Amino acid sequence: EMRYAAKIFAGYQAFRKVGIFGSARAAQDSPEAKVAEEFGRQMVAQNFMIITGGGDGIMGAVQRGAGRDMSFGLNIRLPFEQRANETIEGDKKLINFNYFFTRKLNFVKETHAAALFPGGFGTLDESFEVLTLMQTGKARIIPVVLLDKPDGDYWETWMKFLTQHLYKIGFISEDDFYFFKITHAVEAAVNEITGFYRIYHSARWVGEKLVIRIARSLSASAVAELNDKFADVLRRGSIVQSKALPQEQNEPEICTLPRLVLTPHRRSFGRFRQLIDAINRAECV
Predict the structure, then answer these.
(1) CA 38 from chain center: how many Å?
(2) CA distance 198 to 179
(3) What is the mean pLDDT of each run of 10 residues along the chain (285 residues)?
(4) What is the pLDDT of residue 81?
(5) Which site from 101, 143, 194, 219 is most exposed, i.e. has the minimal number of CB atoms within 10 Å?
(6) What is the DSSP string of the chain?
(7) 158 DSSP β-pair partners
(8) Nearest-angstrom CA–CA distance, 252 and 64
(9) CA dist 60 → 22, 28, 71, 249 (Å)
(10) In this structure, are strands 113-116 and 209-214 parallel, antiparallel, or unpaired?
């Protein structure tokens, strides 16, 4: 399953992709489904591809908006409920999985953003998995938006559980709340995702160094401001603007991008998300 999925995704590496999670049981004409459909339409207009679980409900609505050509479906074989929606059924980008763990791996591996809609156990499972992997530094940091119908309170209710129980008890920290954003407006969700990649491009570890690739060079004053605001993130040294490191030569397609290089503590990854936000607001040369 892993080999076959890698083969399918290999032909679409030029596109950023949004992973979508939400209930398969939502009615096609429900307010949540209408929001999902419009979200899919607007993300494709921004040249993003869409990845869903391939089923009906929220997943089918998003793929109706996105269209067949810009959609992937990662379907799970179940004895009930789950079947491919009509948009993606029969397409080569519909990948059928027998195992949840291989399906989950491909969602995390291939997505550059996540959009979460109201759903049941599966949706909450995927939501907490994405957040856990970023919180522990085991997955790249991506924008995560939590969408609902205009007057819905699904994610606000979820947020109360986080703030009044997990946070108050001390099981999560204040920085963890920077990993996601709740919104009821499609435009705000789209802007959150596209804005994340305004200057920030990607990141990788080279030994103890974190190399942040950026679309444009920052001004000297902007780099100085980052060093001032994020001194607590640094284990030693400072944030330095640089060219590609020698170890990055295996990614020739992005070797010309400028870099920010730092040696950070490998903890409090919510601060890394705040650093990315600050980079996207910074003054460029």
Answers:
(1) 18
(2) 17
(3) 96 96 94 97 98 94 96 87 82 94 94 97 94 95 97 96 96 96 96 98 96 97 98 97 95 95 95 97 94
(4) 57
(5) 101
(6) -HHHHHHHHHTTTTSEEEEEE--TTS-TTSHHHHHHHHHHHHHHHTTEEEEE-S-STHHHHHHHHH-STTEEEEEE--SSS----TTTTT-TTEEEES-HHHHHHHHHHH-SEEEE-S-SHHHHHHHHHHHHHHHTTSS----EEEE--TT--HHHHHHHHIIIIIIHHTSS-GGGGGG-EEES-HHHHHHHHHHHTSSEEEEEEETTEEEEEESSPBPHHHHHHHHHHTGGGEEEEEEEEE---GGGTT-GGGTTS-EEEEEE-S--HHHHHHHHHHHHHSPB-
(7) none
(8) 36
(9) 10, 8, 10, 40
(10) unpaired
Residue 273 amino acid letter: R
Provide the residue type at 232 as one letter.
D
Beta-carbon count within 10 A of 134 CB? 24
- Give the pair of three-digit tokens for residue 97: 């999985």
